[in-house]
Protein backbone atom coordinates (compact mmCIF):
# COMPACT_ATOMS: atom_id res chain seq x y z
CA UNK A 1 0.00 0.00 0.00
CA UNK A 2 1.31 3.41 -0.94
CA UNK A 3 1.90 6.25 1.44
CA UNK A 4 -1.05 8.20 0.07
CA UNK A 5 -3.44 5.40 1.07
CA UNK A 6 -2.45 5.31 4.73
CA UNK A 7 -5.13 6.15 7.37
CA UNK A 8 -3.14 9.20 8.46
CA UNK A 9 -3.14 10.61 4.90
CA UNK A 10 -6.85 9.97 4.50
CA UNK A 11 -7.57 11.73 7.80
CA UNK A 12 -5.45 14.70 6.74
CA UNK A 13 -7.40 15.00 3.48
CA UNK A 14 -10.72 14.96 5.33
CA UNK A 15 -9.50 17.59 7.76
CA UNK A 16 -8.29 19.80 4.89
CA UNK A 17 -11.64 19.46 3.06
CA UNK A 18 -13.57 20.39 6.19
CA UNK A 19 -11.33 23.41 6.72
CA UNK A 20 -11.84 24.57 3.11
CA UNK A 21 -15.60 24.13 3.44
CA UNK A 22 -15.60 26.06 6.70
CA UNK A 23 -13.69 28.95 5.09
CA UNK A 24 -16.13 29.04 2.19
CA UNK A 25 -19.04 29.00 4.60
CA UNK A 26 -17.65 31.83 6.72
CA UNK A 27 -16.93 33.96 3.63
CA UNK A 28 -20.60 33.71 2.62
CA UNK A 29 -23.23 35.97 4.21
CA UNK A 30 -24.93 34.11 7.01
CA UNK A 31 -28.27 35.86 6.54
CA UNK A 32 -29.97 37.44 3.57
CA UNK A 33 -32.73 40.06 3.64
CA UNK A 34 -36.11 38.62 2.70
CA UNK A 35 -37.70 39.64 -0.59
CA UNK A 36 -39.12 43.15 -0.61
CA UNK A 37 -37.37 44.19 2.61
CA UNK A 38 -34.03 45.40 1.35
CA UNK A 39 -33.47 48.91 2.74
CA UNK A 40 -34.05 51.57 0.11
CA UNK A 41 -30.63 53.11 0.63
CA UNK A 42 -28.96 49.74 -0.14
CA UNK A 43 -30.64 49.20 -3.50
CA UNK A 44 -28.36 49.49 -6.53
CA UNK A 45 -28.17 52.96 -8.02
CA UNK A 46 -25.99 55.18 -10.14
CA UNK A 47 -25.77 58.92 -10.59
CA UNK A 48 -26.92 61.93 -8.64
CA UNK A 49 -30.54 61.58 -9.75
CA UNK A 50 -30.80 58.04 -8.41
CA UNK A 51 -29.14 59.02 -5.15
CA UNK A 52 -31.61 61.87 -4.62
CA UNK A 53 -34.52 59.60 -5.52
CA UNK A 54 -33.38 56.88 -3.13
CA UNK A 55 -32.83 59.45 -0.38
CA UNK A 56 -36.35 60.77 -0.94
CA UNK A 57 -37.90 57.28 -1.00
CA UNK A 58 -36.18 56.38 2.26
CA UNK A 59 -37.91 59.25 4.08
CA UNK A 60 -41.12 58.70 5.98
CA UNK A 61 -44.28 60.15 4.47
CA UNK A 62 -44.63 62.92 7.13
CA UNK A 63 -41.01 63.89 6.52
CA UNK A 64 -41.63 64.07 2.79
CA UNK A 65 -44.57 66.40 3.36
CA UNK A 66 -42.51 68.48 5.80
CA UNK A 67 -39.89 69.00 3.08
CA UNK A 68 -42.25 69.17 0.10
CA UNK A 69 -44.71 71.77 1.39
CA UNK A 70 -42.08 74.50 2.04
CA UNK A 71 -40.55 73.76 -1.36
CA UNK A 72 -43.94 74.18 -3.07
CA UNK A 73 -44.50 77.42 -1.17
CA UNK A 74 -41.10 78.66 -2.33
CA UNK A 75 -42.02 77.89 -5.95
CA UNK A 76 -45.33 79.70 -5.46
CA UNK A 77 -43.50 82.76 -4.13
CA UNK A 78 -41.17 83.08 -7.13
CA UNK A 79 -43.45 85.46 -9.11
CA UNK A 80 -43.68 87.68 -6.03
CA UNK A 81 -39.99 87.55 -5.12
CA UNK A 82 -38.91 87.86 -8.77
CA UNK A 83 -35.26 86.71 -8.41
CA UNK A 84 -33.00 88.79 -10.67
CA UNK A 85 -31.49 85.68 -12.27
CA UNK A 86 -34.90 84.24 -13.18
CA UNK A 87 -37.17 87.19 -13.88
CA UNK A 88 -37.98 88.06 -17.48
CA UNK A 89 -37.52 91.41 -19.20
CA UNK A 90 -39.76 91.52 -22.26
CA UNK A 91 -42.81 89.92 -20.63
CA UNK A 92 -44.26 89.76 -17.14
CA UNK A 93 -42.70 87.01 -15.03
CA UNK A 94 -46.02 86.20 -13.37
CA UNK A 95 -47.65 85.57 -16.76
CA UNK A 96 -44.74 83.35 -17.77
CA UNK A 97 -45.16 81.26 -14.62
CA UNK A 98 -48.92 81.03 -15.24
CA UNK A 99 -48.19 79.70 -18.72
CA UNK A 100 -45.70 77.28 -17.22
CA UNK A 101 -48.40 75.98 -14.86
CA UNK A 102 -50.69 75.22 -17.80
CA UNK A 103 -47.99 73.42 -19.79
CA UNK A 104 -46.88 71.50 -16.68
CA UNK A 105 -50.42 70.14 -16.28
CA UNK A 106 -50.41 69.13 -19.96
CA UNK A 107 -47.03 67.44 -19.52
CA UNK A 108 -48.29 65.45 -16.52
CA UNK A 109 -51.31 64.23 -18.48
CA UNK A 110 -49.29 63.43 -21.60
CA UNK A 111 -46.73 61.62 -19.47
CA UNK A 112 -49.44 59.20 -18.34
CA UNK A 113 -50.08 58.29 -21.97
CA UNK A 114 -46.57 58.45 -23.43
CA UNK A 115 -44.30 57.92 -20.44
CA UNK A 116 -46.25 55.44 -18.32
CA UNK A 117 -48.23 53.41 -20.85
CA UNK A 118 -45.84 53.90 -23.79
CA UNK A 119 -48.52 55.14 -26.23
CA UNK A 120 -47.24 57.67 -28.77
CA UNK A 121 -49.86 60.44 -28.84
CA UNK A 122 -49.19 63.27 -31.30
CA UNK A 123 -52.63 64.85 -31.05
CA UNK A 124 -52.83 65.56 -27.33
CA UNK A 125 -53.54 69.21 -28.12
CA UNK A 126 -57.03 68.04 -29.13
CA UNK A 127 -57.93 67.29 -25.50
CA UNK A 128 -56.47 70.64 -24.51
CA UNK A 129 -58.75 72.32 -27.06
CA UNK A 130 -61.82 70.36 -25.96
CA UNK A 131 -61.33 71.46 -22.34
CA UNK A 132 -60.90 75.11 -23.36
CA UNK A 133 -63.89 75.13 -25.70
CA UNK A 134 -66.11 73.39 -23.14
CA UNK A 135 -65.64 76.27 -20.71
CA UNK A 136 -65.89 78.88 -23.48
CA UNK A 137 -69.09 77.43 -24.98
CA UNK A 138 -70.81 77.36 -21.59
CA UNK A 139 -69.74 80.81 -20.37
CA UNK A 140 -69.00 83.10 -23.34
CA UNK A 141 -71.73 85.57 -24.41
CA UNK A 142 -70.75 84.83 -28.04
CA UNK A 143 -71.72 81.17 -27.66
CA UNK A 144 -75.24 79.89 -28.45
CA UNK A 145 -74.83 77.50 -25.51
CA UNK A 146 -74.06 80.23 -22.98
CA UNK A 147 -75.55 79.31 -19.60
CA UNK A 148 -74.42 82.26 -17.51
CA UNK A 149 -77.71 84.04 -18.20
CA UNK A 150 -79.80 81.09 -16.99
CA UNK A 151 -78.45 79.11 -14.06
CA UNK A 152 -74.69 79.70 -13.91
CA UNK A 153 -73.45 82.53 -11.70
CA UNK A 154 -71.06 84.89 -13.43
CA UNK A 155 -68.83 84.91 -10.36
CA UNK A 156 -68.36 81.13 -10.16
CA UNK A 157 -69.23 79.97 -13.69
CA UNK A 158 -65.62 78.97 -14.44
CA UNK A 159 -65.35 76.84 -11.32
CA UNK A 160 -68.70 75.19 -12.06
CA UNK A 161 -67.61 74.37 -15.63
CA UNK A 162 -64.27 72.88 -14.57
CA UNK A 163 -65.68 69.40 -13.68
CA UNK A 164 -67.80 69.54 -16.84
CA UNK A 165 -64.64 70.12 -18.91
CA UNK A 166 -62.93 67.20 -17.17
CA UNK A 167 -65.89 64.90 -17.86
CA UNK A 168 -66.22 65.95 -21.52
CA UNK A 169 -62.52 65.46 -22.26
CA UNK A 170 -62.49 62.10 -20.45
CA UNK A 171 -65.46 60.95 -22.55
CA UNK A 172 -63.73 62.18 -25.70
CA UNK A 173 -60.66 60.16 -24.72
CA UNK A 174 -62.88 57.12 -24.23
CA UNK A 175 -64.53 57.62 -27.62
CA UNK A 176 -61.18 58.09 -29.38
CA UNK A 177 -59.39 55.30 -27.54
CA UNK A 178 -62.01 52.56 -27.87
CA UNK A 179 -61.52 51.97 -31.61
CA UNK A 180 -57.91 53.16 -31.99
CA UNK A 181 -55.95 51.72 -29.05
CA UNK A 182 -55.78 48.34 -30.76
CA UNK A 183 -53.26 50.04 -33.03
CA UNK A 184 -49.60 50.38 -32.05
CA UNK A 185 -46.58 52.50 -32.78
CA UNK A 186 -46.63 54.70 -35.85
CA UNK A 187 -50.23 53.81 -36.72
CA UNK A 188 -51.49 55.03 -33.35
CA UNK A 189 -49.38 58.17 -33.69
CA UNK A 190 -50.93 58.97 -37.09
CA UNK A 191 -54.48 58.41 -35.77
CA UNK A 192 -53.95 60.68 -32.76
CA UNK A 193 -52.33 63.32 -34.96
CA UNK A 194 -55.42 63.25 -37.16
CA UNK A 195 -57.64 63.58 -34.08
CA UNK A 196 -55.86 66.76 -32.99
CA UNK A 197 -56.26 68.28 -36.45
CA UNK A 198 -59.93 67.26 -36.66
CA UNK A 199 -60.68 69.08 -33.39
CA UNK A 200 -58.93 72.22 -34.60
CA UNK A 201 -60.67 72.17 -37.98
CA UNK A 202 -64.07 71.63 -36.40
CA UNK A 203 -63.49 74.62 -34.12
CA UNK A 204 -62.41 76.68 -37.13
CA UNK A 205 -65.36 75.77 -39.37
CA UNK A 206 -68.34 75.56 -37.02
CA UNK A 207 -68.94 79.31 -37.16
CA UNK A 208 -72.42 79.13 -35.67
CA UNK A 209 -71.20 77.32 -32.56
CA UNK A 210 -67.54 78.08 -31.94
CA UNK A 211 -67.37 81.44 -33.70
CA UNK A 212 -64.92 80.07 -36.27
CA UNK A 213 -61.80 82.12 -36.72
CA UNK A 214 -63.25 84.94 -34.59
CA UNK A 215 -63.20 82.69 -31.55
CA UNK A 216 -65.14 83.11 -28.32
CA UNK A 217 -64.46 86.08 -26.08
CA UNK A 218 -65.39 87.17 -22.55
CA UNK A 219 -64.96 83.67 -21.16
CA UNK A 220 -65.89 83.47 -17.47
CA UNK A 221 -63.29 83.52 -14.72
CA UNK A 222 -63.47 83.52 -10.90
CA UNK A 223 -64.55 86.99 -9.78
CA UNK A 224 -62.62 87.14 -6.53
CA UNK A 225 -61.08 90.15 -4.83
CA UNK A 226 -63.35 92.79 -6.36
CA UNK A 227 -62.33 96.28 -5.18
CA UNK A 228 -61.92 99.81 -6.43
CA UNK A 229 -58.44 98.93 -7.65
CA UNK A 230 -59.66 95.71 -9.28
CA UNK A 231 -63.31 96.23 -10.25
CA UNK A 232 -63.43 92.92 -12.13
CA UNK A 233 -61.47 90.90 -9.58
CA UNK A 234 -57.87 89.77 -9.31
CA UNK A 235 -58.27 87.02 -11.95
CA UNK A 236 -59.38 89.45 -14.66
CA UNK A 237 -57.13 89.90 -17.68
CA UNK A 238 -57.29 93.62 -16.93
CA UNK A 239 -55.24 93.05 -13.77
CA UNK A 240 -51.96 93.15 -15.67
CA UNK A 241 -49.90 95.53 -13.54
CA UNK A 242 -48.31 95.30 -10.14
CA UNK A 243 -46.70 92.40 -8.36
CA UNK A 244 -49.88 90.45 -7.60
CA UNK A 245 -51.30 90.60 -11.11
CA UNK A 246 -53.64 88.07 -12.73
CA UNK A 247 -50.77 85.88 -13.89
CA UNK A 248 -49.61 85.31 -10.31
CA UNK A 249 -53.10 84.37 -9.15
CA UNK A 250 -53.59 81.95 -12.03
CA UNK A 251 -50.17 80.44 -11.30
CA UNK A 252 -51.26 79.73 -7.75
CA UNK A 253 -54.42 78.04 -9.03
CA UNK A 254 -52.32 75.93 -11.39
CA UNK A 255 -50.04 74.88 -8.50
CA UNK A 256 -53.06 73.56 -6.59
CA UNK A 257 -54.23 71.63 -9.65
CA UNK A 258 -50.71 70.29 -10.30
CA UNK A 259 -50.40 68.99 -6.72
CA UNK A 260 -53.78 67.25 -7.00
CA UNK A 261 -52.81 65.73 -10.37
CA UNK A 262 -49.45 64.54 -8.98
CA UNK A 263 -51.14 62.89 -6.00
CA UNK A 264 -53.63 61.08 -8.23
CA UNK A 265 -51.05 59.99 -10.79
CA UNK A 266 -48.55 59.00 -8.07
CA UNK A 267 -51.08 56.76 -6.34
CA UNK A 268 -51.94 55.17 -9.68
CA UNK A 269 -48.25 54.51 -10.38
CA UNK A 270 -47.90 52.63 -7.10
CA UNK A 271 -51.04 50.55 -7.71
CA UNK A 272 -51.62 47.56 -9.96
CA UNK A 273 -52.70 50.04 -12.65
CA UNK A 274 -49.24 51.62 -12.68
CA UNK A 275 -47.54 48.22 -12.74
CA UNK A 276 -49.73 47.22 -15.69
CA UNK A 277 -48.78 50.42 -17.52
CA UNK A 278 -45.08 49.70 -17.02
CA UNK A 279 -45.54 46.13 -18.24
CA UNK A 280 -47.33 47.38 -21.37
CA UNK A 281 -44.66 49.99 -21.98
CA UNK A 282 -41.80 47.51 -21.69
CA UNK A 283 -43.35 44.68 -23.73
CA UNK A 284 -47.05 44.66 -24.55
CA UNK A 285 -47.01 41.13 -26.00
CA UNK A 286 -45.34 39.70 -22.91
CA UNK A 287 -47.75 41.56 -20.64
CA UNK A 288 -50.73 40.17 -22.54
CA UNK A 289 -49.36 36.65 -22.38
CA UNK A 290 -48.95 37.00 -18.62
CA UNK A 291 -52.64 37.87 -18.27
CA UNK A 292 -52.57 41.69 -18.19
CA UNK A 293 -55.69 43.09 -19.92
CA UNK A 294 -53.64 45.48 -22.03
CA UNK A 295 -56.50 47.14 -23.91
CA UNK A 296 -58.36 48.03 -20.73
CA UNK A 297 -55.31 49.56 -19.04
CA UNK A 298 -54.33 51.46 -22.19
CA UNK A 299 -57.84 52.88 -22.29
CA UNK A 300 -57.46 53.85 -18.61
CA UNK A 301 -54.27 55.77 -19.46
CA UNK A 302 -55.94 57.50 -22.40
CA UNK A 303 -58.96 58.60 -20.39
CA UNK A 304 -56.91 59.83 -17.41
CA UNK A 305 -54.49 61.70 -19.66
CA UNK A 306 -57.38 63.29 -21.55
CA UNK A 307 -59.02 64.43 -18.30
CA UNK A 308 -55.82 66.14 -17.13
CA UNK A 309 -55.50 67.79 -20.55
CA UNK A 310 -59.05 69.07 -20.14
CA UNK A 311 -58.13 70.66 -16.81
CA UNK A 312 -55.29 72.54 -18.48
CA UNK A 313 -57.58 73.65 -21.30
CA UNK A 314 -60.11 75.01 -18.82
CA UNK A 315 -57.28 76.82 -17.04
CA UNK A 316 -56.19 78.36 -20.32
CA UNK A 317 -59.71 79.53 -21.21
CA UNK A 318 -60.19 81.20 -17.84
CA UNK A 319 -56.81 82.88 -17.84
CA UNK A 320 -56.81 84.24 -21.41
CA UNK A 321 -60.62 84.71 -21.48
CA UNK A 322 -60.51 84.29 -25.24
CA UNK A 323 -60.42 81.01 -27.18
CA UNK A 324 -59.45 80.83 -30.87
CA UNK A 325 -58.64 77.71 -32.98
CA UNK A 326 -55.17 78.87 -34.06
CA UNK A 327 -53.83 78.27 -30.53
CA UNK A 328 -54.43 74.52 -30.84
CA UNK A 329 -52.27 73.66 -33.83
CA UNK A 330 -49.95 70.70 -34.28
CA UNK A 331 -46.87 72.78 -33.40
CA UNK A 332 -48.12 73.21 -29.83
CA UNK A 333 -48.77 69.47 -29.68
CA UNK A 334 -45.14 68.86 -30.63
CA UNK A 335 -43.99 71.32 -27.95
CA UNK A 336 -45.98 69.43 -25.32
CA UNK A 337 -44.38 66.17 -26.42
CA UNK A 338 -40.99 67.92 -26.39
CA UNK A 339 -41.49 68.82 -22.72
CA UNK A 340 -42.16 65.17 -21.85
CA UNK A 341 -39.20 63.81 -23.83
CA UNK A 342 -36.86 66.52 -22.57
CA UNK A 343 -37.75 66.06 -18.91
CA UNK A 344 -37.78 62.26 -19.00
CA UNK A 345 -40.61 59.99 -20.06
CA UNK A 346 -42.23 58.26 -17.12
CA UNK A 347 -40.92 60.71 -14.51
CA UNK A 348 -43.78 63.00 -13.50
CA UNK A 349 -41.46 65.49 -11.80
CA UNK A 350 -39.02 65.41 -14.72
CA UNK A 351 -41.71 66.40 -17.22
CA UNK A 352 -42.53 69.43 -15.06
CA UNK A 353 -38.90 70.53 -15.42
CA UNK A 354 -39.20 69.92 -19.16
CA UNK A 355 -42.32 72.10 -19.28
CA UNK A 356 -40.48 74.87 -17.46
CA UNK A 357 -37.62 74.74 -19.98
CA UNK A 358 -40.00 74.83 -22.95
CA UNK A 359 -41.96 77.81 -21.59
CA UNK A 360 -39.27 79.79 -19.80
CA UNK A 361 -36.32 79.83 -22.21
CA UNK A 362 -38.02 81.70 -25.11
CA UNK A 363 -39.50 84.23 -22.69
CA UNK A 364 -36.14 84.65 -20.98
CA UNK A 365 -34.59 86.05 -24.17
CA UNK A 366 -37.52 88.32 -25.11
CA UNK A 367 -36.54 91.97 -24.74
CA UNK A 368 -32.95 91.28 -23.65
CA UNK A 369 -30.16 93.26 -25.25
CA UNK A 370 -27.28 91.64 -23.40
CA UNK A 371 -26.47 88.61 -21.29
CA UNK A 372 -23.38 88.41 -19.07
CA UNK A 373 -22.14 91.59 -20.75
CA UNK A 374 -22.45 90.14 -24.27
CA UNK A 375 -24.73 92.16 -26.58
CA UNK A 376 -27.51 90.02 -28.09
CA UNK A 377 -30.79 90.45 -29.95
CA UNK A 378 -33.07 88.57 -27.58
CA UNK A 379 -36.19 88.95 -29.73
CA UNK A 380 -34.45 87.41 -32.72
CA UNK A 381 -33.19 84.50 -30.61
CA UNK A 382 -36.70 83.89 -29.25
CA UNK A 383 -38.05 83.68 -32.81
CA UNK A 384 -35.80 80.67 -33.44
CA UNK A 385 -37.09 78.70 -30.46
CA UNK A 386 -38.32 75.80 -32.60
CA UNK A 387 -34.88 75.47 -34.19
CA UNK A 388 -33.19 75.39 -30.79
CA UNK A 389 -35.67 72.88 -29.37
CA UNK A 390 -35.14 70.68 -32.42
CA UNK A 391 -31.36 70.77 -31.99
CA UNK A 392 -31.75 70.10 -28.28
CA UNK A 393 -33.86 67.01 -28.99
CA UNK A 394 -31.33 65.71 -31.53
CA UNK A 395 -28.48 66.08 -29.05
CA UNK A 396 -30.61 64.57 -26.30
CA UNK A 397 -31.41 61.51 -28.39
CA UNK A 398 -27.71 61.03 -29.10
CA UNK A 399 -26.22 61.54 -25.66
CA UNK A 400 -29.12 60.99 -23.22
CA UNK A 401 -32.13 59.37 -24.92
CA UNK A 402 -33.87 58.70 -21.60
CA UNK A 403 -34.24 62.46 -20.91
CA UNK A 404 -32.79 64.79 -18.32
CA UNK A 405 -34.48 62.97 -15.42
CA UNK A 406 -35.17 59.39 -16.52
CA UNK A 407 -37.75 57.22 -14.79
CA UNK A 408 -36.47 54.73 -12.25
CA UNK A 409 -39.56 52.53 -12.45
CA UNK A 410 -38.97 49.37 -14.51
CA UNK A 411 -40.39 45.90 -14.58
CA UNK A 412 -37.52 44.76 -12.33
CA UNK A 413 -37.80 47.55 -9.78
CA UNK A 414 -37.56 44.90 -7.06
CA UNK A 415 -35.20 42.67 -9.04
CA UNK A 416 -32.60 42.73 -6.26
CA UNK A 417 -35.05 41.36 -3.69
CA UNK A 418 -36.29 38.69 -6.10
CA UNK A 419 -32.70 37.70 -6.83
CA UNK A 420 -31.91 37.37 -3.13
CA UNK A 421 -35.03 35.32 -2.49
CA UNK A 422 -34.29 32.99 -5.41
CA UNK A 423 -30.72 32.37 -4.24
CA UNK A 424 -31.89 31.66 -0.71
CA UNK A 425 -34.52 29.19 -1.98
CA UNK A 426 -31.96 27.47 -4.21
CA UNK A 427 -29.59 27.16 -1.26
CA UNK A 428 -32.27 25.47 0.85
CA UNK A 429 -33.18 23.06 -1.93
CA UNK A 430 -29.51 22.20 -2.50
CA UNK A 431 -28.96 21.57 1.19
CA UNK A 432 -31.99 19.29 1.42
CA UNK A 433 -31.09 17.43 -1.78
CA UNK A 434 -27.63 16.11 -0.76
CA UNK A 435 -28.86 15.02 2.67
CA UNK A 436 -25.97 16.66 4.49
CA UNK A 437 -27.42 20.10 4.90
CA UNK A 438 -24.47 21.60 3.04
CA UNK A 439 -25.11 24.95 1.31
CA UNK A 440 -21.81 25.24 -0.51
CA UNK A 441 -23.28 23.75 -3.69
CA UNK A 442 -24.69 27.19 -4.48
CA UNK A 443 -22.14 29.98 -5.00
CA UNK A 444 -22.03 32.70 -2.41
CA UNK A 445 -24.08 35.83 -3.08
CA UNK A 446 -22.09 39.01 -3.13
CA UNK A 447 -24.59 41.42 -1.60
CA UNK A 448 -22.56 44.43 -2.67
CA UNK A 449 -22.59 43.53 -6.38
CA UNK A 450 -25.67 41.41 -6.84
CA UNK A 451 -27.62 44.35 -8.23
CA UNK A 452 -25.54 44.11 -11.42
CA UNK A 453 -27.03 40.71 -12.10
CA UNK A 454 -30.48 42.13 -12.76
Note down, in words, how this protein is organized.
The protein is mainly α and 454 residues long. It folds into two domains: 318 residues, Orthogonal Bundle (ABC transporter involved in vitamin B12 uptake, BtuC), CATH 1.10.3470; 31 residues, no CATH class. The protein contains 17 helices and four strands. The strands form two sheets. The protein has a two-stranded antiparallel ribbon with strand order 1-2. Strands 3-4 form a two-stranded antiparallel ribbon. 35% of the residues are buried. One of its GO terms (molecular function) is branched-chain amino acid transmembrane transporter activity. It is found in: Cell membrane. This is Amino acid/amide ABC transporter membrane protein 2 (HAAT family). It is a multi-pass membrane protein.
Keywords:
454 residues, 2 domains, two-stranded antiparallel ribbon, two-stranded antiparallel sheet, globular, LivM-like, transmembrane helix, Amino acid/amide ABC transporter membrane protein 2 (HAAT family)
Amino acid sequence: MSTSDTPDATSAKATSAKSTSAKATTSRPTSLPPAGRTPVAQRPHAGLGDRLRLWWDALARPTQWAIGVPFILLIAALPVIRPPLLTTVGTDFGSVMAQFGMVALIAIGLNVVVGQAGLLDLGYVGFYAIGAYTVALLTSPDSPWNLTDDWLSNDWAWLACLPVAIAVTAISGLILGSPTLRLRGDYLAIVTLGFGEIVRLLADNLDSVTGGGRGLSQVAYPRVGVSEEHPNGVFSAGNASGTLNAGVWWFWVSIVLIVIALLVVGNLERSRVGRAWVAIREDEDAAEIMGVPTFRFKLWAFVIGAAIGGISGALYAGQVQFVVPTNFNVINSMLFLCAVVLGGQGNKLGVIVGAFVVVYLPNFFLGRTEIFGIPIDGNEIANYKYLFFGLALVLLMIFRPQGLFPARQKLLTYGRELYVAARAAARKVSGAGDGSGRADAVPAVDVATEGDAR
